[in-house]
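Self-study notes.
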Amino acid sequence: MTDTANAPLRIVFAGTPDFAAASLQAVLDHADQNHYEVIAVYTQPDRPAGRGQKLVASPVKQLALEHDIPVYQPLNFKDETDRQALADLNADIMIVAAYGLILPKAVLDTPKLGCINVHASLLPRWRGAAPIHRAVIAGDTITGITIMQMDVGLDTGDMLLKKECNIKADDTSGVLHDRLAMLGGEALIEGLEAIKAGTIHPEQQNEELTCYAEKLTKQEGEVDWTQDATTISRRIRGLLPWPGAYTHTPAGVMKIHAAKLLDTEEQDFEHGEITMVSKEGIVVAAGKGSIMVTELQFPGGKRMSVQDALNGKFKDQLQVGKLLGSQA
């Protein structure tokens, strides 16, 4: 707890992408009412982006600058100068959300109340880099936010607070991300208030229940049409918006921007065979069941509906009997 009940909680916030910005925004929105003072923000160095490869500030940095909050962007905390700069801030607590750096013990021990993390899963399930995507791909029906006391392990610290969130049958990782980002902000404020009040009861994680959410790769996006339709549907949704799912056609790689599970019954078609075409979408046979692709993109083209694609130069690739995948 802070020295006095009415003293502002001196907060250092560390995060980088939109998910983290939602948590920072929640803290700022409650700053006056709850006596929070965000004294500094840490975020990843500006990265080149877009066709011009111009340096772009992270969403967290942009939000911090809008509120005149000092921003620090160390490459890591190996340099004593960077560790001392953090110590000089005299923070009560450090909030970490999708920062992108592994924090050494010296950093974790610097704030008076240590460092807490806003993690996008119900720990101990889905530790690691891509918990939202892995939950969708695995077919989980429930996920959520865990506010965790950080230690030197990878998402191994004691759990301080959890808030659940349902995963809907048609959720993509992008849609679920946005819902969890807002929930993360809510959970963070609830957690901070409990920490201030001294009512938090840390809970150790059950190591037997852990699984690791590996970082995504572009190669994972290739659809294996020999898999059952349920598995394919989860993978397509789980990889949207990045890295995205794709399949091969004679005209090149076709990106799949939207698809839905059509059925799960056994069928007498080749894997990857287009079995039906309509303005709603193309139906593709899987190892068991079928998928309806509704939005796609061909090389050199833009994202479009199947209806628009059927009026374009690639319409011959979308006819009944055509094969998608490695055999195309």
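Second protein, same conventions, sequence then structure:
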Amino acid sequence: MKSPVWIPVVAIASLGLAGACTPQPSPNSFSAGEAGRAVPVQFGTVESARAVEIRPGQTRLGAATGAVLGGLGGSTIGRSTTANVAGAVAGAVTGGAVGSALEGSSRTQGVEITVHLDAGDTIAVVQPGDVRDFRRGDRVRVTGTEENVRVTR
């Protein structure tokens, strides 16, 4: 018995909706793993701030998932082996493109803040936020380590 063709479409749409419900990170939000941890704190002065766009990581998960679901759905379209193979290939290509587009649509507005630390070093931090939140000369607090640092006023 053949599976309905609409199943992969619903699955791909569900992936997109699930991504839309993901909470947006901010300098004021913390993951469960960050709670209850002591982190180093430094103070400094903002040298500059500029708006940036934070793209999702290059995991290719969206494209791969879309390709698999598209291939499965496309393989049920035809009545012959040749039609099934052609449908699977077309479905995989289309599903991959849709999955990649869904993954790429989750870009976040961010800010790159260059801070001259009181200790003498100058660092640049990219984080979610608005460039209007920081001005040259602002005193800021820099918390965290190289892997997970944030700047707050």
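Instructor comment on the second fold: The mean pLDDT is 76.
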